[in-house]
Amino acid sequence: MTALSSLWLPILVSAVLVFIASTVIHMFLPWHRNDYLKLPDEDKAMDALRPLAIPPGDYVAPHCSGPEEMKSPAFKDKMNKGPVMMVTVRPSGMFSMGKPLVQWFVFCVVIGFFAAYVTSHALPSGTQYLRVFQLVGATAFMAYAAALWPPSIWYGRSWSATFKSTVDGLVYALVTAGTFGWLWPR
């Protein structure tokens, strides 16, 4: 067992390195440019929705209140006519990157903390690089990538976007694992 307090450096350094890797992936590579499609006749769709003043939130349409309504002919007709949507509405105005970037960094620190927690209970100080890399990498991969699959399974999110984000999660896990292997207490 390794003291969790001795792993603050790899937790923070891995968070910084993952933050940098994610910046490179999302800002400089074309990898995610087609994750979201443009609505056909976007201006017309936005003009139609704007008067509804839909508050920020997650929505599904058509919506049903329970299993009984789901069986009704009216609901089935709405489903067949379409469109069937799951939509997130954000506040109007330009999107500020400051808050999400801070939240992403905190998330990276949290992933590093949990990878450290699991690994510190399994491996002693002085463990060889590859063994630390294996355990931290598996733990970090589960955290960065496993939760991405349910939205494709249940909500129809594009599998190609999920696959690309899973590859991103693998990169982040490898960076985290390499950092912990490098900075593991000797």
What descriptors fit this protein?
elongated, 62% helix, 8 helices, 5% strand, mainly alpha, 2 domains, 186 residues
Q: Approximately how much helix is present in the residues?
A: 55-70%
Total strands: the figure is: 2
Share of β-strand residues: 5-15%
Structural class: mainly alpha
State Rg: 22 Å
Q: Report the total helices.
A: 8
Q: In the residues, how many domains can be counted?
A: 2
Read across the widest sheet, the strand sequence of neighbours is 1-2
pLDDT < 50 stretches: none
Globular, elongated, flat, extended or rod-shaped: what is the shape? elongated
Q: What is the H/E order? A: HHEHHEHHHH
| Arithmetic mean pLDDT | 95
Q: Summarize the biggest pleated sheet.
A: 2 strands, antiparallel
Distance between the termini: 13 Å
Entry summary:
The chain is mainly alpha-helical and 186 residues long. Helix content is 62%, strand content 5%.
Describe this structure in words.
- Helix 1 crosses helix 5, helix 1 runs antiparallel to helix 8 and helix 6 runs antiparallel to helix 8.
- The protein folds into two domains: 122 residues, no CATH class; 48 residues, no CATH class.
- The chain is mainly alpha-helical.
- A two-stranded antiparallel ribbon has the order 1-2.
- The two termini are 13 Å apart.
